[in-house]
Design the sequence.
């Protein structure tokens, strides 16, 4: 009997992944790992076991992962007391120590590139985690997620409300897809007998002009340079640190770092992605 475990189940990604996994394997073979156990119990499907596990507490992670064969490590969020890299390293070490046989990890496109980690810490964190997994010798799948369409909810809904449509990615193409589709792919890979070691998960690459074309309203479109973009975000009231982070991602897009064409997503899902126009409508209708 194979035991499956997932971290981050109280988040949107992990919540979708555990529900999909429960349709692929017996719910009683699934362990949901969460810091907030009561919240997780209210979310997971019936039959799924919930165990306490905190990215920042290695002892809880070892206890939570004991008896687990296959693990989905959902990328964490750094806290004031611990970096993302350290949090995820704690999970990798605990998994190796208790004998987890396979780990799937939600990463970022082409972390093996020497250029990408140098551009932004977020990417460096993912590369460090992949390296740590490789060092353990555990079987693995790196799920290198491109860009969630939901990341553009503020832009899309703002345009519909009459705000300017401002971006700094130029003609850079982005592999947008819905977060729930990335989560479904992760669950399906976890349940596979022989998954690939790397999945560069991406939707059909499109520009911000392409995105604007499927939003059902007329609005002002303004393509600006990265510095102007960052300044505009800060003038709108956004915290400087957040504006800087978003500007760095726009630079990645502008440089073509998120332009990828392959069949990895369809191979993981076993079916096509949601039509792009329908996906945008789903974002518009959501409360996120």
Sequence:
């Amino acid at each position: 009997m194979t035991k499956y475990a997932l971290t981050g189940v109280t988040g949107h990604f992990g919540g979708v992944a555990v529900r999909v996994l429960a349709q692929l394997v017996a719910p009683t073979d699934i362990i949901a790992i969460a810091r907030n156990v009561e919240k997780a119990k209210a979310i997971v499907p019936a039959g799924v076991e919930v165990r306490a596990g905190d990215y920042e507490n290695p002892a809880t992670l070892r206890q939570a992962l004991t008896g687990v064969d296959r693990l989905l490590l959902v990328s964490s969020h750094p806290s004031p007391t611990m970096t993302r890299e350290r949090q995820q390293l704690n999970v990798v070490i605990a998994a190796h120590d208790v004998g987890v046989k396979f780990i799937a990890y939600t990463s970022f496109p082409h972390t093996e590139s020497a250029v990408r980690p140098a551009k932004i810490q977020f990417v460096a964190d993912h590369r460090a985690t992949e390296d740590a997994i490789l060092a353990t010798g555990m079987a693995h799948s790196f799920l290198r997620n491109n860009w969630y369409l939901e990341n553009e909810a503020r832009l899309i809904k703002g345009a519909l409300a009459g705000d300017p449509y401002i971006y700094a990615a130029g003609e850079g193409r982005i592999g947008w897809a819905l977060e729930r589709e990335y989560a479904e792919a992760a669950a399906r890979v976890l349940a596979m007998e022989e998954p690939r070691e790397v999945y560069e998960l991406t939707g059909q690459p499109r520009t911000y002009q392409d995105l604007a074309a499927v939003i059902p309203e007329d609005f002002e479109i303004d393509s600006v340079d990265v510095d102007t973009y960052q300044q505009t975000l800060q003038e709108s009231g956004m915290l400087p640190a957040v504006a800087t982070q978003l500007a760095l991602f726009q630079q990645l897009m502008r440089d073509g770092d998120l332009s990828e064409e392959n069949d990895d997503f369809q191979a993981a899902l076993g079916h096509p992605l949601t039509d792009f126009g329908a996906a945008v409508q789903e974002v518009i209708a959501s409360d996120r």
